Amino acid sequence: MKRLTIFCLVLVAAGLLACSGNKAKKNADDAAASQLTEQTKGAVGEKFLDLEEPDADGKIHKLSEYVGRGKWVLVDFWASWCGPCKAEMPNVTAAYKKYHPKGFEIVGLSFDREKDPWLKAVTEWDMPWTHLSDLKYWDTVASTVYGVNAIPDNLLISPEGIIVARGLRGPALEAKLAEVIK
Question: How far apart are CA 75 and CA 38, in angstroms?
């Protein structure tokens, strides 16, 4: 009788272990699918994903107000507290000044937490294009929609609304713009 009880307990334990293994596998599969989804957010070759963010006055704007309207648009993810963003900004500003007369636009999406440093950086870093921010730091809508996990980052979007490049920095930004904007 004792052996039968032990045998039954072992059998039940094995069954529970097998079931929990399936749950662990399902969780692993779900995590992998989620990671794949994160990796495809803002992927080159995909249509841009619309989002809404406020400007400095609190007015809500959709990204689609700027993107997919016949112009090349750089969506620039940055923050005033980001040293690499500040270092990259002269390249972005030079590109804007050179290509804006040819129909190139930039929409800056800031990962700032506070309004004053954000707006001060816009002025001091000479960024004369559209700027939006919900002031939610890494919880910003832009981070969620485009899977941004490091800044600076950007998306170059075609006049038709297709993402053609991501993460263009330094000379790579100028080279890509020279290639696509004649």
Answer: 18
Q: Which residues pair with 77 in a beta bridge?
A: 109, 153
Residue whose pair of structure tokens reads 């004792």 in the numeric block: 2
pTM of the model: 0.78
The answer to whether the beta carbons of residues 107 and 129 sit under 8 Å apart is yes
Q: Do the Cβ atoms of 170 and 90 come closer than 8 Å? A: no
Burial status of residue 101 (CB atoms within 10 A of its CB: 0-12, 13-18, 19 or more) = exposed
Beta-strand (E) ranges in 28-115? 52-54, 60-62, 73-78, 105-110
Residues 6+ apart with CB under 8 A from 145: 41, 42, 49, 51
Contact, 107 vs 75, CB < 8 A?
yes
Beta strands (DSSP E) in 42-140 are 52-54, 60-62, 73-78, 105-110, 130-132
Q: What is the pLDDT of residues 13-59, one digit of tens each?
A: 444 344 334 434 334 334 433 433 444 578 899 999 999 999 999 99
